[in-house]
Design goal:
The structure holds three protein chains of three kinds. Chain A folds into two domains: about 160 residues, 3-Layer(aba) Sandwich (D-Maltodextrin-Binding Protein, domain 2), CATH 3.40.190.10; about 200 residues, 3-Layer(aba) Sandwich (D-Maltodextrin-Binding Protein, domain 2), CATH 3.40.190. Helices cover about 50% and strands about 15% of the residues of chain A. The radius of gyration of chain A is 25 Å and the shape is globular. By secondary structure, chain B is mainly α. Chain B has two domains: about 60 residues; about 180 residues, MetI-like fold, CATH 1.10.3720.10. Chain B contains 16 helices and two strands. In chain B, helix 5 packs across helix 16, helix 6 crosses helix 10 and helix 11 packs across helix 12. Chain B is globular, with a radius of gyration of 25 Å. By secondary structure, chain C is mainly alpha-helical. Chain C has a single domain, classed as MetI-like (MetI-like fold), CATH 1.10.3720. In chain C, about 70% of the residues lie in helices and about 0% in strands. Chain C contains 15 helices and two strands. In chain C, strands 1-2 form a two-stranded antiparallel sheet. In chain C, a hairpin with a 6-residue loop joins strand 1 and strand 2. The chains are: A alpha/beta, B mainly alpha, C mainly alpha. The interface between B and C is large, with 106 and 101 residues.
Chain lengths: ~450, ~290, ~290
């Protein structure tokens, strides 16, 4: 009898040990480091999704290290890694509800700024920009306006988003196509030609927000005329019933039904990407961050890079978007100042040039020259910048402009559209109803 | 017992009766059923294992092929892209601790709720059952606030506490069920022998309920092991994060590395499987070691 | 047994404390705020009574679809999945050749995380290169190769099947219970001349009453919470064919920021759960000891 009791007691003891071990051993050691120095550095908390396989991860890591070294003893940037885009948005929202936003947040394409403003948690950057004209000159007026609300500038971007589409030159030539289509009618002719030559024309997808599909949709609307173009530059629209939108949805349906792979319906980005990278499809709408993949031999065959060309959209359109960028939510001036220092560091000329050199990230300022060195390293990027000069219409990304629940609705409704179980009008109506729920 | 053995030996002529065609058909059906079960359980894991040696293109191109080159790049990259090893230890600590706590505490409550009648018993059980029904989504905000207020944000203890609570309802029901099926006569015999409440519980009930306890433990462990949302929301630093978080490092909106992800899954799953097998052996051997409820 | 009451309290206390800390406030918040209009982060809440509920049941076809999907899945999970799990447990209890291996392998899908599982399923059912379609096409039944997760006719069943992997948990629960039934009972029955089938039906199953009831409760209520696997595969699509209430709740709360409406759904789920538990308790006469 005693043996069993002691066994039980032993278990209890282990329990207590585990308790104390974990409770003590894992509390943040911030407090433990005594203030033996004269002044403790100000810690800036920055949660980010740019980790892991995210293409910006290495660059961010480097920037943080350099900044911390430069400002040693004065400011310390503490990164919180949040892998997964939805997890990032979820966590920021939880923090927002508890009124505990971190010092720095990158809104980058996720409509977080307006939610944060509702809580009144965002620091006005206008005075900082006014005090530093050199810094302010890094951004175009259009960018700053996009990042303003009620005349106050709340965030600044760190790159210029320029997106066309990539096409497989080899497949084009084999099918007898000499150059990318200039009009949407030509575009569909090209698709038909490719199809007849036994090539699947397009990579499309519907999962997440249906990025690969929706870029085409946005371009169709954005090049349809002045009204359409304005529409694709307006945030938080709640009416999708215009003629140009419905017509574009119609075209998308045609593309789903005739010109893409069977796994486009329900497909994720990587399925569409893989189809292009393995030469199964001839065209994919995506941005310059994909260029690295063309060299990656675990994803594409050797020498694939040479086969890829980049073009602007039919109708002379291109995504040339202002993005929501970094905003500051510190609670006191000291932290706010420090956070702004870091933002300045991330967006100043040298850092942007580094980004350009390192990963082909296009700088915000149109004044930054692309040197011959960089041109050699990133030929496809240079090609993109060159063809972009032919574009007449520029527009923004649906993912940045439209309500999150609309994005979700698109993703779940695309399959119905693609399988001809829903008409373009119904699709547009459902998006409109969903958008209106936000009011 | 000897009588029974003798009688059994007399009945050893069973095999002849089994030639009944109906039984053979049943046996075949049974085997097909088992085969399907094994297939759907094991094949996916084998696929992941083989794919962890393929390139991304190969993985996405076809399901049934063997890698052209068996490369360990995925395994190397898994460590480069994510802090996998750090998180593994954290997952172990958090999962084991919450399992021990959960089974320990909820076991006591389940015993009392199964065995004794007292005021408010039905009410208490119903209220505790509410926790079975709360959607995770509704819990995130309040739990975050509570944990923050207690001062357990970004600690393993915070996660342990939350996981212990999350598994409360299912452990409660499972353990209560096992306790209900233990004949009351056993306790009555113990009391007659002069054993007190606590003694009876520890020395008589618990050993009998071991399979139930072990099962509840397995479920609780799995819950803690696979939980992702709270792991992200309630922790900040790498010293406290768990494996499910690590697995998210391998895909983002425009980037993917399936090879590394599958390698990570393999590395994480194999030790868990081994541990499970060992644990099961323990449980089974303690069962067959002596008559349990006789 | 003097201190019985004291012991009872001591045994209950930790669990109740844990419950209060973690669950009490959320439950109250969920139910309370379901009667408010509460959107976004401005903190404005206005009392609207039963409006959220009326709106949902009358005008929101997505809600109704999610609700009906949830109910159907509750019924399917508590019958088919529990049935299959129990059947496997019965078979394994006889210890056929390799039973340990089977028991272990059935747990494998549960040890891999949901995101890994979802990825596996997506790849298995991929219309272009998935195993299922590859095999179908190899066998020559080209027409049967479908887009399993996204075809209107196959989406719902495919998601239903994908939950089968969780039936492994049922198996270990039931198996543990079977293995603690004393051999002597089975031997006595065999001596009396009972066949395998009769033993299963008239002796084993009744003794499993409690655990079976528990399994049904756990399965049914898990359908009131589970959405991860759906979210990671179809996200509720196509349209809303595979949407269930927990997933709709998640979207309403975290994508639309409509917290009042989401909590209305939460309260609905709680009510559904209570009804289910009470019903199942009645059917299985849970709570009554065997002896």
């Amino acid at each position: 009898m005693n043996m069993k009791a002691t066994k039980y007691l032993a278990l209890l003891l282990i329990l207590i040990m585990v308790f104390t071990m974990t409770a003590c051993g894992s509390k943040n050691t911030d407090q433990v480091v005594g203030s033996s120095e004269q002044k403790e550095p100000i810690t800036i908390k920055y949660p980010t999704f740019q980790v892991g396989v995210n293409t910006s991860a290495p660059l961010l890591k480097q920037n943080v290290e350099e900044f911390n070294k430069l400002y040693e003893g004065k400011i310390k940037v503490e990164i919180e890694e949040i892998p997964g885009d939805q997890a990032y948005v979820d966590k920021i929202k939880v923090l927002l509800s508890a009124n505990e936003l971190p010092d720095l947040i990158y809104a980058g394409g996720y409509n977080l700024l307006d939610s944060a403003l509702e809580k009144g948690a965002v620091v006005d950057l206008t005075p900082y920009l006014e005090a530093d004209p050199e810094w302010r000159a890094m951004f175009t007026e259009r960018d700053l306006e996009f990042n303003s609300r009620d005349g106050k500038i709340y965030s600044v971007p760190e790159e210029r988003q320029l997106v066309g589409y990539f096409y497989n030159k080899e497949l084009f030539q084999k099918s007898g196509i000499n150059q990318p289509p200039k009009t949407w009618d030509e575009f569909f002719e090209v698709c038909e030609t490719l199809k007849n030559a036994g090539v699947t024309p397009l990579s499309m997808d519907t999962a997440d927000t249906g990025w690969l599909t929706s870029l085409w949709l946005s371009s169709m609307i954005g090049t349809s005329g002045q009204k359409g173009n304005e529409y694709m530059n307006t945030m938080n629209v709640d009416d999708y019933m215009s003629a140009e939108v419905i017509d574009s949805i119609n075209k998308i349906q045609k593309m789903f039904l005739n010109y893409t792979t069977p796994d486009a319906v329900g497909g994720k980005y990587e399925n569409g990407a893989n189809n292009f990278l393995s030469g199964k499809t001839a065209m994919i709408a995506n941005g310059p961050w994909m260029i690295e993949d063309f060299k990656d031999t675990t994803k594409a065959p050797e020498g694939f890079m040479e086969k890829v060309g980049v073009a602007i959209y039919p109708g002379q359109g291109i995504f040339d978007a202002s993005m929501l960028g970094y905003f500051v939510a510190s609670k006191d001036k000291e932290h706010a100042d420090a956070a702004v220092e870091f933002v300045k560091y991330l967006t100043k000329k040298e850092t942007q040039l580094k980004g350009l050199d390192f990963m082909g990230r296009i700088p915000t300022s149109p004044d930054i020259e692309i040197t011959a060195d960089i041109a050699q390293k990133h030929p496809l990027l240079v090609e993109l910048v060159n063809v972009s000069k032919d574009a007449i219409h520029s527009y923004n990304f649906y993912q940045s402009l439209w309500y999150p629940n609309v994005l979700d609705k698109m993703s779940t409704d695309y399959p119905a559209l693609a399988l001809d179980k829903m008409t373009p009008e119904e699709f547009a109506q459902r998006l409109t109803d969903t958008a209106k729920k936000n009011n | 017992m000897d009588m029974l053995k003798a009688v059994k030996e007399l009945n050893v002529q069973e095999p002849k009766i089994k030639k009944d065609p109906k039984l053979i058909v049943l046996k075949i059906l049974r085997n097909i059923f088992l085969f399907i079960i094994i297939a759907i359980s094991v094949l996916p894991f084998i696929w992941i294992f083989i794919s962890s040696f393929k390139t991304n293109a190969e993985i996405l191109d076809s399901a049934l092929t063997v890698p052209a080159h068996w490369s360990f790049d995925g395994y190397i990259n898994a460590f480069k892209l994510s802090p996998l090893h750090k998180f593994y230890l954290n997952s172990l600590i958090v999962s084991i601790s919450s399992t021990v706590l959960n089974v320990f505490f909820v076991g006591m409550a389940a015993y009392v709720l199964a065995r004794f009648e007292f005021k408010f018993k039905k009410g208490i059980l119903l209220v505790l059952s509410l926790s079975l029904l709360l959607p995770m989504t509704s819990l995130i905000h309040p739990v975050y606030m509570t944990i923050k207020k207690i001062g357990l944000y970004d600690t393993k203890m915070g996660l342990i506490l939350v996981y212990t609570a999350l598994g409360l309802p299912s452990s409660l029901y499972i353990l209560r069920s096992y306790f209900l099926s233990i004949p009351k006569s056993i306790e009555e015999a113990a009391y007659v022998d002069g054993a007190g409440f606590f003694r009876t519980y520890v020395e008589i009930i618990i050993p009998i309920a071991k399979p139930g306890l072990a099962t509840a433990a397995v479920l609780q462990f799995l819950l803690a092991w696979n939980e992702f949302l709270y792991a992200i929301v309630l922790t900040n630093s790498q010293s406290n994060r768990t494996i499910p978080v690590a697995l998210s490092y391998f895909t983002s909106q425009f980037s993917f590395n399936y090879t590394a992800m599958f390698a990570a899954i393999v590395m994480v799953s194999i030790p868990s499987l081994v541990a499970y097998v060992v644990l099961q052996e323990q449980v089974v051997s303690s069962l067959t070691a002596g008559s349990v409820k006789g | 047994m003097k201190n019985k009451a004291l012991w009872i309290a001591v045994f209950l206390l930790p669990t109740i404390i844990i419950f209060l800390i973690v669950f009490a406030i959320p439950v109250i918040t969920v139910v309370y705020t379901s009667f408010f209009k509460w959107k976004g982060f401005s903190g404005n809440m206005s009392f609207v009574g039963l409006n959220n509920y009326i709106e949902a049941f009358k005008n929101d076809s997505t809600f109704r679809k999610a609700l009906s999907n949830t109910v159907v899945w509750i019924l399917l999970q508590s019958t088919i999945h529990v049935g299959i799990g129990t059947l496997l447990a019965l078979i394994l209890s006889k210890k056929p050749r390799g039973w340990k291996f089977i028991r272990t392998s059935y747990m494998i899908p549960n040890i891999i995380s949901a995101s890994a599982l979802a990825m596996i399923f997506l790849n298995v059912f991929n219309p272009q290169f998935g195993i299922v379609n590859s095999v179908i096409q190899a066998l020559g039944f080209e027409n049967f190769a479908k887009n399993w997760y996204f075809d209107f006719s196959t989406a719902f069943p495919t998601v239903t099947i994908s939950w089968l992997v969780y039936a492994g948990l049922i198996t270990i629960l039931v198996l543990a219970e079977i293995m603690s039934i004393p051999e002597s009972i089975f031997e006595a029955a065999k001596i009396d001349g009972a066949s395998e089938m009769q033993i299963n039906l008239f002796i084993t199953l009744p003794m499993l009453r409690n655990i079976l009831g528990t399994c049904v409760i756990v399965s049914a209520t898990s359908m009131l919470k589970e959405f991860e696997l759906i979210y990671l595969t179809t996200k509720g699509g196509p349209v809303d064919l595979t949407l269930n209430l927990p997933l709709y709740l998640y979207k309403t709360a975290l994508i639309e920021n409509n917290f009042g409406y989401a909590n209305m759904m939460g309260t609905t789920l709680i009510i559904m759960g209570i009804i289910s538990i009470l019903l199942i308790n009645k059917i299985f006469r849970l709570g009554k000891s065997d002896v």
